[in-house]
Amino acid sequence: MPSSTARNDSIYAPRPCRLVSVTELTRQEKLFRLQLTDGSELQQQPGQFVQLSIPGLTEAPISVASSPSRHGYFELGVRKAGTLTSALHQLQAGAQLGIRGPFGRPFQLAELYGKQLLLIAGGCGLAPLRSLIQYCQDNPDKFSAVHILYGARSPADLLFRDELPGWQISDSFTCRVTVDQNPANSCYDGDTGLIPELLAEIPIDADNGCAVVVGPPPMYRPVIAELRKMGLSGAQQIMLSLERQMRCGVGKCGHCSIEHLTCCCDGPIFWLEEVEQLRGAL
Ligand SMILES: Cc1cc2nc3c(=O)[nH]c(=O)nc-3n(C[C@H](O)[C@H](O)[C@H](O)COP(=O)(O)OP(=O)(O)OC[C@H]3O[C@@H](n4cnc5c(N)ncnc54)[C@H](O)[C@@H]3O)c2cc1C
Ligand code: FES
C-alpha cells in the first residue's frame, strides 16, 4: 500500500487542485500542469498515477508525467479519449480539479540504481515514462547509463517534441526517436521503423542492464522477444507498465484484476516475470 494512501484522510475523497497551465502536445494529447490547492507537494514516485476528477463529472486514472524532483507542481499528459478527458481538454488555466492518490506501485528505483537503463516508450507511454526520465536527469549519478528509445506512429504523433533533444545529454545518456511512417512532406529527420528493429543498436551491457517498457499492449511481446535476444533474460531485467480499466484505484473493487493481482495496487508497474504467465496480462 503506498504511503500516500495512509497519509490521506480518506482514500476516496478528492483533494482540490488548480490547473496552472495547459500545453498542446499533439492534436490528441495535452500536458496539464497542476498544483494542490493547499500548497503541498503531491509526493508521488515515478510510475504512480492519480485518479483525476472534474467536480460534478467523473474520474479517470492518469499517470503522473513529471518527476517528484521537479518541485511545486505535477504534470499529467492526457489523451482525449472519452468523457473526463474530453472535458479536461476544454479547460483553461485556473480551473479547479480534484485528485485522489498518488496510487499504485511505482518504478522500482532501488532495483534500478547503478544499472544501465533502457527506457522504451511507445505512443502515449512516453507520458508516464517521462517521470522516470526526469528523475534520471535530476539524479544522473545514480545510474550507470540511460538510453531512451521512443516510437510513435508518425512525426505528428510525437509527444514532448521540444524536450526530446534535451534528453540526449552524453554518450551514456542518449535518446533515440523513431516513427512507424514518415510522410513525404514532413521535415522529421529521425529514424523510421518499429521499436524492436532498432533495439539491437542500443549499447547495453546485458549483465548490468535493465529495460523499462511502457506502451500499447501490442508492443510488449515483440519488444520482450528482442530484449531477450539482447541478453536481458534474467530475473528483474524487464519492468513494464500495464493498464486496466479502473474504478476505486485502491484495490477494493476488483475492477482491474489480472488473475490474483490488481493493476491499481500490485501495479501498474510489474516485473515481467510477475505477469508473463497470467492470462490476458500481456
Ligand atoms: C494506471 C493508468 C494510467 C493511465 N495513465 C494515462 C495517462 O497518463 N494519460 C492518458 O491519456 N491516459 C491514461 N490512462 C488511460 C485513461 O485512464 C483512460 O483513457 C480513461 O478511460 C479516460 O477517461 P475518460 O472518461 O475520458 O474515458 P471514458 O469515457 O471512460 O472511456 C473512453 C474509452 O476508453 C476506454 N478505456 C477506459 N479505461 C481504459 C484503459 N485503462 N485502457 C484502455 N482503454 C480504456 C473505454 O472503454 C472507452 O472505450 C491510464 C490508465 C490507467 C489504468
Ligand atoms: S480499480 Fe478497484 S481494485 Fe483496482
The CATH C-level class name of the largest domain:
Alpha Beta
Question: What are the distinct ligands in this entry?
Answer: flavin-adenine dinucleotide, FE2/S2 (inorganic) cluster
The total beta strand count reads 15
Under CATH, the homologous superfamily of the largest domain reads: Nucleotide-binding domain of ferredoxin-NADP reductase (FNR) module
The biggest beta sheet reads: 7 strands, mixed
Class based on secondary structure composition and strand pairing: alpha/beta
Order of H and E elements? HEEEEEHEHEHEEEHEHEEEEH
How many DSSP H or I helices? 7
Task: Tell me what the structure shows.
The protein is of the alpha/beta class and about 280 residues long. About 20% of the residues lie in helices and about 30% in strands. The protein has helices at about 5, 85-90, 110, 125-140, 195-200, 215-230, 270-275, and strands at about 15-25, 30-35, 50-55, 60-65, 75-80, 95-105, 115-120, 145-150, 175-180, 190, 210-215, 240, 255-260, 260, 270. The strands form 3 sheets. Strands 10-9-8-7-11-12-15 form a 7-stranded mixed beta sheet, with helices on both faces. It has a 6-stranded antiparallel beta sheet with strand order 4-3-6-1-2-5, covered by helices on one side. It has a two-stranded antiparallel sheet with strand order 13-14. A hairpin with a 2-residue loop joins β13 (about 255-260) and β14. It binds flavin-adenine dinucleotide and FE2/S2 (inorganic) cluster. The site of FE2/S2 (inorganic) cluster has 12 residues, from loops.
Layout of strands and helices, then pairs:
Layout: H1 3-7, E1 15-24, E2 29-36, E3 49-53, E4 59-63, E5 74-79, H2 83-90, E6 96-103, H3 109-112, E7 116-122, H4 126-138, E8 145-152, E9 173-179, E10 191-192, H5 195-199, E11 209-214, H6 217-229, E12 238-241, E13 257-258, E14 261-262, E15 269-271, H7 272-275
Parallel strand pairs: 7-8, 7-11, 8-9, 9-10, 11-12
Antiparallel strand pairs: 1-2, 1-6, 2-5, 3-4, 3-6, 12-15, 13-14
The structure holds flavin-adenine dinucleotide and FE2/S2 (inorganic) cluster (FES).
FE2/S2 (inorganic) cluster is lined by residues 246-249, 251-256, 262, 264.
